Amino acid sequence: EKGGYDYFMLKEIAEQPKAVADTLLGRVDDAGRLSLDELRIPPEEVREVDKVVIVACGTAFHAGMIAKYAVEHWTRVPCEVELASEFRYRDPILGPRALVIAVSQSGETMDTLMALRHAREQGSKVLAICNTNGATIPRESDAVLYTHAGPEVAVASTKAFLTQLVACYLVALYLGQVRGTRSSDDIREQVRELSRSADGVERVLSTMEPVRELARSLASHDTVLFLGRHVGYPVALEGALKLKELAYMHAEGFAAGELKHGPIALIEEGVPVVVVVPSPRGGSVLHDKIVSNIQEIRARGARTVVVAEEGDEAVVPYADHLIRVPVTPPLLQPLVATVPLQVFACELATARGNEVDQPRNLAKSVTVE
Ligand code: F6R
């Protein structure tokens, strides 16, 4: 049932193009209107939403962090993202005009469930983004958008994450549509770009041999650091989480802009640093800043592993290892940039002799607080 792969995780990584495409299937009509029919919140209420609050744990939380960039950019509605385990213990400001989005692959995560119950008690509407039909979280929510990743067996989340991103982008576009901040042309174009990213993931998957080789060469290291900016920041966090849980290595993700505020002190000779580079297109100021960061850490001895868009030549002189990802709109880059980090973690875990599908101390769904 592993379909010829050694591990479920490898199979699930390989299934990502299909998972993304399936989650997009039938969401937009010829007129460029999104019809998220499972989303049973009346448009009048969606128009009234004055705040979006995303609650989730672990990898799903990283999807939520990325969603914040899309929601605020596309809809101009303020969006908060919070770890579900922190949410209800701090008396969050909610009410009927807050739309709470609970993101959960399993739909059974206790912290996320308790957060959504708290939100509903405060009169907020809750939308679940979930991969498991009929699970507790979607059952207790006002609305649900199912991701169509298919069953995810490996404990470490891969294809569910990519489909959570797709679902979050769709909800953000839907909010933009209902509130009139996005034209139907724009929505159609964004959905087209989302579909193209499924091909992008396929392309990334076909170029992973050097990443595996690199991972094997790092098997005896203790630490790997990850840097990113904008939507690349949560991607860095996700890369680090994957490495912790699978390779049992000390891995940390940082916002690249924070380097000088502390983390740069960790840089020493030979420490591998994976840097997720934003697109250089449109003269992105963030791109230039991150290129300087790469120079700074390399000058201090870091071994740089650079994840950069095809055609980005500015990074080449400073990359000890270069991982190319296809060109995407800047907000969608996580769909392609996360994939090499999954492969990297999986291969490192294998090289270290770890159980890839069942990492120590972890369970697939965390049904206790
Ligand atoms: C990491 C991982 C976990 C889950 C988290 C939430 O690879 O799988 O961090 O993302 O436990 O689980 P769900 O999405 O089922 O609520």
UniProtKB/TrEMBL annotation:
GO MF annotations, alphabetized: glutamine-fructose-6-phosphate transaminase (isomerizing) activity
Coiled coil location: none
UniProt keyword terms in alphabetical order: Aminotransferase, Cytoplasm, Glutamine amidotransferase, Repeat, Transferase
Catalytic activity, reaction form: D-fructose 6-phosphate + L-glutamine = D-glucosamine 6-phosphate + L-glutamate
Group of enzyme by EC: transferase
Active site (catalytic residues): 364
Residue ranges annotated for the SIS domain, each copy included: 42-181, 214-359
KW Cytoplasm (keyword) present: yes
This protein's record includes keyword Heme: no
Subcellular location(s) per record: Cytoplasm
EC assignment: 2.6.1.16
Known role: Catalyzes the first step in hexosamine metabolism, converting fructose-6P into glucosamine-6P using glutamine as a nitrogen source.
Subunit structure: Homodimer.
The protein's name in its UniProt record: Glutamine--fructose-6-phosphate aminotransferase [isomerizing]
Taxonomic source organism: Streptomyces fragilis
Primary gene name: glmS
